[in-house]
């Protein structure tokens, strides 16, 4: 019997409202083919259990259309999972961090009817629903059920229509669901969510996040886009999981997910973290809108803000023209908000051929001055050898002195997987940043320049540069050298930026990777990603 003590606020809503039809002849049950006639008693017994489960759910779980209106002024968040305990294990800590600012709704496809036996059981369903309601009470969430049977979840039209209706009613600002490369029920729940989001159009203009269930037998191919530091609410998450006592014998479920949290924490540089993927790439703008990433704004404890007002930006590259090709559009968008600095490690003296000539140095210096002026940047050019750059101590020490003098809040440099000079420049930069300690508390972004980079460069953040692409082309055109066609470098940049734009759902974009994974904060320091504000 359903627990009525929690009142209408937490009462579960069964949104299926349909009884399963009889199995067609030849259907397999538990991998055994059934033909008619058969043991009629056995068949009726199997379906009697299903009918009891459905009737019990129908009585205890009114339709979601009868749900009371959410509190005014508190935006809705919807979590969609397959079974009781899925969301608690995958994102319980994040849910705790969200509960004060958002009204959370939890939609579960099944009541975990097979959680204690091979066959669905009404008694098991009653136990697990009570546990699910207890967990939802801890975060002040309203609980809804689809009315599916454990291990029999399908992303069919009825399920998609049900979730579509709930999305329209709640109009949530954030939607969480399960990653699709997972066990069948988890994958089906994620597919139902995604299809309903497409049907409503919310996939394009809401925050949509996917979480993992459990690694090592369930979730696969889950490479996080960013992390949420849940160290301060780890105990609360454990309590959420312990609500599901029938699945947590000897704290086995808590211990398994503690290991998962600790692993993500090591990657994100904190004690415990939960991991998420987004549906669309992380960017500053697409389709004329500014995407929001509220999870990156969550603060779980008192954190330091070390470089909030630091407007100094340093771009470190190997040759004149490197930064313009890789991130010229982003620099153009930053120039009015920040004090820009460009540090070039070589003079580009091999730009006119294998021979290093004074003429090449003069021409390339003029070009560098002109493009730096387009972003109002202070330009500094060192004299390490073009075509033979190595990460020697002299080069690292020179960059250390430069960084200590500027004290930037944001640093850009080459991605390390690139051709010789670019790879050396990246190593020089990261060694200098590590020596100064800036690598830990500043925004460090890597850009890709050459075709060698792009084959190993998978951006984490995109910057929409459609509005400044013409200016970027002019900037690159300045670097046309004698004997070269002016369109050569421009064509390369246009192709790369068009491809990133296609990925990012805009005309032109530039891509970046961060030194540390994206997370809301690490080491008691608030992380900033100001590229997302451009």
Spatial order of the strands forming the largest sheet: 1-6-5-4-7-8-10-9
CATH architectural grouping of the largest domain: 3-Layer(aba) Sandwich
- CATH homologous superfamily identity of the largest domain: LmbE-like
Number of domain units: 2
SS elements, strand count: 20
Shape: elongated
Main beta sheet: strand number and arrangement? 8 strands, mixed
Give the percentage of residues in beta strands. Answer: 15-25%
Tell me the span between the first and last alpha carbons: 55 Å
Unreliable stretches covering 5 or more consecutive residues: 1-46, 51-68
Q: Structural class of the secondary elements?
A: alpha/beta
Average pLDDT reading: 84
CATH topology of the largest domain: Rossmann fold
By DSSP (H or I, 4+ residues per run), the number of helices equals 16
Helix content: 25-40%
Which CATH C-level class of the largest domain is it?
Alpha Beta
Instruction: Please compute the radius of gyration using only Cα atoms.
Output: 28 Å
């Amino acid at each position: 019997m359903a627990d009525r003590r929690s009142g209408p606020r937490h009462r579960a809503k069964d949104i299926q409202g349909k009884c399963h039809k009889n199995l067609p002849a030849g259907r397999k049950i538990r991998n055994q083919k059934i033909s008619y006639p058969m043991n009629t008693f056995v068949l009726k017994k199997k379906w009697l259990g299903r009918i009891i489960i459905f009737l019990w759910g129908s009585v205890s779980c009114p339709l979601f259309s009868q749900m009371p209106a959410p509190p005014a002024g508190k935006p809705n968040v919807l979590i969609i999972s397959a079974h009781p305990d899925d969301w608690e294990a995958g994102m319980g800590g994040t849910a705790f961090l969200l509960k004060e600012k958002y009204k959370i709704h939890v939609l579960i496809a099944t009541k975990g009817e097979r959680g204690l036996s091979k066959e669905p059981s009404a008694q098991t369903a009653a136990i697990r629903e009570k546990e699910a309601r207890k967990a939802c009470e801890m975060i002040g969430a309203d609980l809804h059920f689809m009315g599916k049977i454990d291990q029999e979840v399908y992303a069919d039209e009825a399920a998609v229509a049900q979730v579509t209706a709930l999305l329209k009613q709640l109009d949530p600002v954030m939607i969480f669901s399960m990653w699709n490369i997972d066990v069948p029920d988890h994958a089906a729940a994620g597919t139902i969510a995604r299809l309903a989001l497409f049907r409503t159009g919310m996939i394009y203009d809401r925050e949509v996040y996917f979480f993992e269930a459990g690694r090592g037998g369930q979730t696969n191919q889950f490479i996080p886009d960013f992390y949420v530091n849940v160290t301060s609410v780890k105990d609360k998450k454990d309590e959420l999981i312990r609500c599901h006592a029938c699945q947590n014998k000897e704290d086995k479920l808590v211990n398994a997910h503690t290991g998962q949290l600790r692993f993500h924490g090591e990657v994100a540089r904190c004690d415990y973290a939960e991991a998420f993927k987004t549906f669309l790439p992380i960017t500053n703008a697409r389709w004329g809108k500014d995407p929001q990433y509220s999870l990156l704004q969550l603060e779980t404890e008192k954190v330091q803000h070390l470089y909030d007002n630091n407007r100094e930006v340093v771009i470190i590259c190997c040759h004149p023209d490197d930064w313009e090709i890789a991130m010229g559009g982003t620099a153009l968008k930053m120039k009015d908000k920040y004090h820009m600095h460009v540090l070039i490690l070589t003079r580009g003296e091999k730009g006119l051929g294998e021979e290093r000539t004074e003429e090449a140095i003069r021409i390339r210096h003029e070009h560098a001055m002109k493009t730096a002026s387009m972003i109002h940047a202070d330009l500094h050019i060192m004299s390490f050898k073009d075509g033979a750059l190595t990460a020697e101590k002299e080069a690292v020490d020179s960059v250390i002195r430069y960084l200590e003098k500027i004290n930037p809040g944001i640093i850009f440099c080459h991605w390390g997987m690139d051709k010789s000079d670019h790879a050396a420049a990246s190593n020089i930069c990261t060694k200098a940043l590590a020596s100064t300690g800036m690598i830990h508390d500043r925004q460090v972004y890597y850009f890709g320049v050459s075709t060698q980079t792009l084959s190993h460069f998978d951006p984490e953040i995109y910057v929409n540069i459609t509005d400044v692409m013409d200016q970027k082309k002019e900037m690159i055109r300045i670097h046309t050298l004698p004997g070269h066609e002016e369109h050569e470098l421009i064509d390369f940049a246009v192709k790369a930026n068009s491809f990133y734009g296609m990925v990012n759902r805009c005309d032109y974009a530039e891509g970046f990777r961060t030194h540390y994974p994206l997370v809301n904060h690490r080491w008691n320091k608030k992380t900033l990603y100001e590229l997302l504000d451009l």
